[in-house]
Amino acid sequence: MLRLRFNYRSSSAYESPAFYGELQTIERLQLKAIEIITDPQFGMSVDALKHAVNSHDIKACWLMSKYQNPLGASMPEVNKLAILDVLAAKHIPLLEDDVYSELYFSEYKPKPIKAYDQQGLVLHCSSFSKCLAPGFRVGWVVAGRYAKQIEKLQFMTTLSAAVPNQLAIAEFVLHGNYDTHLRRLRRQLESRQQQMRHAIEQYFPLETTITRPSGGYFLWVVLSDHINTGELLQTLLDDHNISIAPGTLFASDQQYKNCMRINSSYLLTDKIRQALITLARCFA
């Protein structure tokens, strides 16, 4: 969609902090990036987006409405409607990245912004990569008014989709207890997140704050202002063989130096627990 909408140095609104793959795409397409402050609990700021679209000639907006990477944020329904209203008033398309949508911990699956889209402005993107088959790289887009253009671009880019992978997934979804798999996966992820949060609270300095996402993979950890996780990265790798995702990885201008993202989807093994203890000593 970005390739369809933009010329050189066109403006795109996106979350801050944001998934580093998103930042790399914006840089590769040589777009002018308009950062929109994003809350760890409520997602992209409606007021900040409104100010941005009134101040810049924004051609598109890109966000994750649920279990955002790296914050884990999920928008309340009222915010989803407000975001859509702001964009629709200026006829700005929204790229809604919803790859973690099946990984909710609540009883009911939250709606995407696409569910409220009356003008076909929302391109809703999702994938089986996060919930079923990471190696297959099978996803989809509900593209609204841009469907024909997306089809053409996809054909020009790849010529042919991975049909065997798609057929295998379709067979499992239809006949392989997909819903049972998802329920088991959600319980597992929720339990592992709770264990990881508890371990961080136990070992890290008292002033540390940790997000409490209602789904997905990620915890966003905020440390004391004097800590620079980016500067510690190489030392942790060289001296302790520990790799972290520093906060600066998720911004274009060295923001979030005292932050880090932790993937809570892994089982809390003794090795990971020891790595957390080592991190805590470095942060003390």
From TrEMBL:
InterPro entries: Aminotransferase_I/II_large (IPR004839), Class-I_PLP-dep_aminotransf (IPR050859), PyrdxlP-dep_Trfase (IPR015424), PyrdxlP-dep_Trfase_major (IPR015421), PyrdxlP-dep_Trfase_small (IPR015422)
Gene Ontology MF term list: pyridoxal phosphate binding; transaminase activity
Tree of life domain: Bacteria
Cofactor field: pyridoxal 5'-phosphate
Sequence intervals crossing the membrane: none
Keyword Transferase assigned: yes
Alphabetical UniProt keywords: Aminotransferase, Pyridoxal phosphate, Transferase
SUPFAM superfamilies according to UniProt: PLP-dependent transferases
Protein name, entry field: Uncharacterized HTH-type transcriptional regulator YdcR
Species for this entry: Moritella yayanosii
Lineage: Bacteria, Pseudomonadati, Pseudomonadota, Gammaproteobacteria, Alteromonadales
